[in-house]
Amino acid sequence: MDKKKRLVLIGGGGHCGSVLDAARGMNRFEEIVITDPDIEAGSEYMGCRVAGADEMLSRLFQDGFGMAFISVGSITSTRLRKELCQKAKEAGFDFPNIIDPSAEVSEYAMVGKGIFIGKNAVVNAGARIGDMAIINTGAVVEHGCRIGAFSHVSVGAVMCGDSKTGDSVFVGANATVIQGVRIGMNSIIGAGSVVLKDVGPDSMFYRSGGVKFKNAFPTDMEQWFWGSSVKLLRSWDGRMEAC
Ligand code: JB2
Description:
By secondary structure, the protein is of the alpha/beta class. About 15% of the residues lie in helices and about 25% in strands. The protein has four helices and 23 strands. The protein has helices at about 15-25, 55-60, 80-90, 220-225, and strands at about 5-10, 30-35, 45, 50, 65-70, 100, 105, 110, 115, 120-125, 130, 135, 140, 145, 150-155, 160, 165, 170, 175, 180-185, 190, 195, 205. Strands 6-9-12-15-18-21-23 form a seven-stranded parallel β-sheet. It has a six-stranded parallel β-sheet with strand order 7-10-13-16-19-22, with no helix packed on it. Strand 3 and strand 4 (about 50) form a beta hairpin. GDP-perosamine binds next to helix 1 and helix 3.
């Protein structure tokens, strides 16, 4: 089998579910396995075999898997994703882009390697997406934007035209970065923030309207969540117990 059609997903959590779904939708990979130190080797995740921990990477490469993808998400820190990327490189793997078939990516956009573009995300003409970046579900990267390597534009976030991030930037869910604004490397933009001016490197920017929610964090969360009439219909990944 062509080694480019054999893919290892590194990390078998929630983000892996989105990546796996998109990878299958692309109809490009004939075999997909997962490495994850916390999932039993030989078990299945969404119908995909878990090969073992990352120590298996060299062995998998020798066995004819040529492609690897970092399927651990990055919430605020990109450290783990970088370490895993290095491990996979050292083992000899190449990195495909995984783009959900529902995403709209302009043919005039430029993308690097190892990028994830999730369901219904939009990457418009002239945008440039750096290696290993995540453009998550429903995010919009407008014309002329630049997204740095290892940066993550989270669910529903909007990068307006010609805005830019440096490397390893996290733009939280539903945040909006206004036209032409630049976010310096390693900075974090809080969910729902509206960024009207440049943000320097290594900064944290949170502005979510200052609205207070009464009882936002009930003490008996389990009771509040599961004690109602809500029932799980099915346990899709074997981790969630039906109640
Ligand atoms: O060193 C590692 C390692 N450390 C943790 N190697 C490998 N191969 N896997 C590792 N993991 C695994 O990453 C954990 O055992 C776990 O299975 C997975 C992390 O799963 P979790 O669901 O906690 O996070 P995620 O990174 O898949 O998703 C986060 O980021 C997404 C972008 C979540 O916050 C999601 O909600 C978010 N959409």
